[in-house]
Design brief:
The chain is mainly α. The protein has two domains: about 1-75; about 75-165, no CATH class. About 75% of the residues lie in helices and about 0% in strands. It contains six helices and two strands. It has helices at about 1-25, 40-60, 65-70, 75-115, 120-145, 155-165; strands at about 30, 35. A two-stranded antiparallel sheet has the order 1-2. It is flat and about 55 Å long.
Length: about 170
């Protein structure tokens, strides 16, 4: 567990540095009359993640976190099973984006995660997996004006209805 914690923190730190560097290809600062540049959010979120990984490493050196004190394996049989189930769900989510849209894939993944993995009630699972993507649609498409992948043409009637509410 101890070794796994510092390896994970190191990998996340390297990814953070790479994302910070890559995001500087776009404007990172404030653009007068437009707002934050295209690289601002990725840069600052990566910087925050880098700070968090530094804190993890600091606690690891001091042995103040439970994982930094543990000599147990990182994943037991139950942990491996959950990793495969969640990882498989994420792979399915990514595979569905170009077919049923970002929001459709989000609905399917949320339902899978809440109902199948989380064992929540069908009512709660359906409610959250249908309401959340619609809320994210209005946030990204309406407020932020960021268009997400809309999938194949059979999903277009749903988007036409939602766009009619925005515009």
């Amino acid at each position: 567990m101890r070794r796994g914690e510092i390896i994970t923190a190191g990998i996340l730190a390297l990814l953070s540095i790479y994302m910070m560097w890559k995001s500087t290809e776009l404007e990172v600062g404030y653009i007068r009359g437009q707002g934050p540049g295209g690289g601002a959010w990725p840069f600052w979120l990566s910087a925050i993640m880098l700070i968090c990984t530094a804190m993890i490493a600091y606690n690891w050196v001091r042995r103040t976190s439970p994982p930094s004190q543990s000599e147990e394996p990182v994943l037991d049989a139950e942990g491996r099973r959950m990793l495969i189930q969640v990882g498989g769900g994420i792979v399915g989510f990514v595979a569905l984006i170009n077919i049923i849209s970002m929001y459709g894939a989000m609905a399917v993944f949320l339902f899978y995660y809440l109902w199948f993995l989380g064992r929540h009630s069908l009512k709660l699972s359906l409610t959250l997996s249908l309401v959340s993507p619609v809320a994210f649609f209005f946030f990204f498409e309406g407020l932020m004006r960021i268009t997400m992948p809309s999938g194949m043409s059979f999903t277009q009637p749903v988007f036409n209805l939602l766009y009619s509410i925005i515009y």
